[in-house]
Specification:
alpha/beta, TIM Barrel, Helicase, Ruva Protein, domain 3, 2 domains, 8-stranded parallel barrel, 14 helices, 47% helix, binds the ligand CC[C@H](O)CC(=O)C(=O)O, binds manganese (II) ion
Amino acid sequence: MTKKPIQITEVCLRDGSHTVAHQFTVEQVRNVTRALDDAGMHYIEVSHGDGLGGSTVQYGKSLVNEMELIEAAVDECTNSKVAVLLIPGIGTMSELKQAHKLGAKLVRVATHSTEADVSAQHISQARELGMEALGFLMMAHSVPVDKLVEQAKLMESYGAQAVYVTDSAGALLPHQVSERIKALRGSLDIEVGFHAHNNLSLAVANTLAAIEEGATRIDGAVRCLGAGAGNTQTEVLLAVMDRMGMDVGIDLYKMMDLAEDIVGPLIPGTQEIKKGSLALGYAGVYSSFLLHSERAAARFGLDPRDILMELGKMKVVGGQEDMILDVAAELAKKEKVRV
Ligand SMILES: CC[C@H](O)CC(=O)C(=O)O
Ligand SMILES: [Mn+2]
């Protein structure tokens, strides 16, 4: 397959929704989107952190209905396209249609790396609506390369126009990213993408490894505003790519300015690698489980790392957030017996 130009998707308004406990306001979404559009960003993803329909007690209630946020983002875009994320089982067809009606041009249909079969209807529905439909294989560190290839091929067969290797736990090492992207590139006729989390401080390095192997759909989050330690820091990646002679047509100075002046003030605390986010990458746990685990640890008087290590051993997958409290309660019981 001939290599397409690299397209960047900015995810701070979707993956970053986890970091702000889904409390984005319309004004914040408008300000960030306007500045990203002005800088020339290709795609801007806007949804609840867990995708369309994620605003629930299980995943965290949004302050503002995501459809209002999507509508506001579309209204601010002159060139950038608004994307949405949908996890089948959380988001519905009707929410997908609504997002499309409001002007979303692309949907990433996300499944666990062994469950691509649940994406068939949503991918084909999106294509029928005339949207770009891409597959997003989450927790890609947790399955062997041939399994990932098999699942990506399923998504391709449903009509996906690209499939992402999604390092949800920020647990992949650069050579593991290379082998996954290379295998997908060698087996698919569609584009391959990469989505990183920075829990082991490898997001930029892993993204470069993915690009080196031919990934052309690349995710970033301004100021790392994403779950856990965040995603590949977009403005840093753009500077590095520029130094490597890769021009993607996005204005670096404008990105630096919006990172400092518009996104920075939205971040509660600091987006750095602390023991909690490091434990996510080390244990191989879904990045969006961090805040839930920290809350459970506070409630049961535990160290969040113990909860995360246990969740890693159990190989929990997205959607099993309710397990966090169960694990915490069980650990607290054991602790009491020991005392
Ligand atoms: C819970 C959905 C998740 O945040 C999607 C994603 O960005 C990932 O798996 O990394
Ligand atoms: Mn993510």
